[in-house]
Amino acid sequence: MDKLSVMRAFCRIVERGSFAKAAEDLQVSPALLSSDLKRLEQQLGCALLARTTRRMSLTEHGRLYYEEAKRILADIDRSEEAVRQAAGQVRGRLSVNAPHSFGVTVLASLLPSFLARHPEVDLSVSFDDRVIDMIEGGYDLTIRIRAGLPDSGLVARGIAPVRQALFASPAHLARHGTPQRTQDLASHPVVGYLHADDATAWILHGPEGAVTLPHRARLKVGSSLVLRDLLIAGNGIGALPDFLSDPAEREGRLVRVLPRHALPSRHVYAVSASRRSVDAKALAFVDHLQAALARPRHDS
Questions:
Q1: Which CATH class is domain 3-86?
Q2: 92-151+268-293 has which fold?
Q3: What is the residue-averaged pLDDT of the chain?
Q4: In Å, how far are 6, 147, 251, 273, 293 from 288, measured between CA atoms?
Q5: Burial class (CB within 10 angstroms; exposed 0-12, middle 13-18, buried 19+) of 282
Q6: pTM
Q7: Please, which residues have CB within 8 angstroms of residue 48's CB and are 6 or more apart in sequence?
């Protein structure tokens, strides 16, 4: 039995809370993981996991083994990564999570060039507009677009700013009139975004300073891409980030509402679980993304 492999498997089982999910991550069968765990428990002379048909939990001995195994594996990973980085190697498996709209319109086109530059990296990328638990999801990096990130154990690196503003279609403005003042927004239907920091109000910064405008959206969607398309179809006024609004505005399908006013800027962040988890391949990916976003995005 390869003790280090079993240690890694045990830690993955604990972190994922499931033999099936851990087996999928490790690309082995659940039966093999179960067999290895039984042999490990026999060697140690104690149970590490308490299992029922509905749930799984660590025993007291299992918690001690998990903490020690994590420490040992982290030391090994750091030692190996130090050697790789000293040799200038960017290699291994990299798992990234990003918002769906940003992933489809911006990130997807950058992936082939990253892989071409780093042929020894295996990259997996998932797109989801919800905030994902990095540890539970097994991600090395997650891309988040926020005005700011809460104080936590996560480590964030700012990559690029994202402008936000209000938009509507020419057809909508022809029917309902073009707002000239912030108060005029009250007479327009609103299409809202389910994952907004505040789904009930906009904060607009303009000549008169910051103005908070409560709004009631009868229609809220959980996808910025769907929100954009609903606005283009003339369903109301809504807030969009520049990577979605710029192409539609250039093509005349969307018009900026109250152009002297803007919503608070947001930032693209690359987030990792800890500084120690940011290895050469993760740094290479973040550098690649930052360099690409520094260039004007005419076709995104």
A1: mainly alpha
A2: D-Maltodextrin-Binding Protein; domain 2 (3.40.190)
A3: 88
A4: 34, 22, 29, 20, 9
A5: buried
A6: 0.66
A7: 10, 37, 40, 41, 58, 59, 61, 62, 65, 66
